[in-house]
């Protein structure tokens, strides 16, 4: 499977290394890998009106503040925080940062229960294979955060607040309200965890960041049918560049081909056969599956 999904160094998007580990990879876009996950900054260096996309782990807030100061100026703050979803590694610092900056947090309405303190995600599935990250997944926090006083719904017209030219796409499966962000003009995709560009189940892969095309992290994906539909939709866009929540930004025709291969053979390449949620998805409101609490 790894060979089928493998990408090479030629498929990596060029990056400009900045202060505090910030890596610019496209006009107005930069990211910082914080432990196991990426946070993304949208906006012109030194300018105002920038946006933070996802907030990393609960320990990430000081590093994010340092990155913001280095890229946008001391005491700068974003106009908004956009959440692709609310798993612990993406929403870990959202309470701290939204309060510190006093800014709104935008998310899909189906993700609200995990951002307003109402609901927890389903249990992780450690038996999906792939390595230590999967085996450790039952230890990952799944309780909700609470930013209800600052929480706002993404606009129904699919525009992304304070990011002109971008639209949000509902890409559920990894979570009910997962979204990806799409810029049509340059065909840039901020995928969140709908697809990822490293084998996130493996601690070794997380460390080395070898580029590969994968579906969402297996250990925290409870609805594989929805995940497959989401990947197929993203493949049809034929993005020129992808930055995901895990892994390095990738680009080009071979990347497009691997994304299409993933979509076409999703059940064989992405879904953990016999996993907890293989044929029994956990979905909110499913009375027969009470994994969401």
Automatic annotation (TrEMBL):
Renumbered residue ranges of the record's region Disordered: 271-293
Residue span(s) of domain Metallo-beta-lactamase: 36-246
Pfam families listed in its UniProt record: Lactamase_B
Coiled-coil positions: none
InterPro entries linked: Metallo-B-lactamas, NDM-1-like, RibonucZ/Hydroxyglut_hydro
Protein name stated in the entry: MBL fold metallo-hydrolase
UniProt organism field: Pseudorhizobium endolithicum
């Amino acid at each position: 499977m790894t060979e089928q999904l493998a990408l090479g160094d030629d498929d990596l998007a060029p990056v400009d290394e900045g202060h505090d580990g910030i890596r610019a990879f496209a006009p107005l876009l930069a990211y910082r890998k914080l432990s196991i996950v990426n946070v993304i900054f949208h906006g012109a260096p030194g300018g105002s009106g920038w946006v933070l996309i996802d907030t990393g782990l609960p320990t990430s807030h000081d590093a994010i503040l340092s990155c913001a100061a280095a890229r946008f100026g001391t005491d700068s703050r974003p106009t908004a925080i956009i959440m692709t979803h609310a798993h612990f590694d993406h929403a870990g610092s959202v309470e701290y940062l939204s309060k510190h900056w006093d800014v709104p947090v935008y998310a899909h309405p189906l993700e609200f229960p995990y951002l307003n303190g109402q609901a927890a995600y389903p249990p992780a599935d450690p038996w999906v294979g792939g390595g230590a990250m999967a085996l450790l997944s039952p230890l990952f926090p799944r309780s909700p955060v609470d930013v209800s006083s600052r929480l706002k719904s993404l606009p129904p017209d699919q525009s992304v607040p304070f990011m002109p030219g971008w639209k949000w796409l509902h890409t559920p499966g990894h979570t009910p309200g997962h979204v990806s962000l799409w810029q049509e003009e340059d065909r840039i995709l901020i995928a969140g965890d709908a697809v990822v560009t490293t084998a996130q189940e493996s601690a070794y892969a997380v460390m080395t960041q070898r580029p590969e095309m994968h579906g969402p992290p297996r250990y925290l994906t409870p609805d594989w049918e929805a995940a497959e539909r989401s990947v197929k939709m993203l493949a049809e866009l034929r993005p020129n560049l992808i930055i995901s929540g895990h892994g390095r930004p990738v680009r080009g025709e071979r990347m497009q081909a691997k994304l299409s291969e993933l979509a076409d053979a999703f059940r064989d390449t992405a879904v953990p056969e016999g996993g907890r949620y293989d044929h029994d998805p956990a979905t909110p409101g499913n009375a027969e599956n009470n994994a969401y609490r």
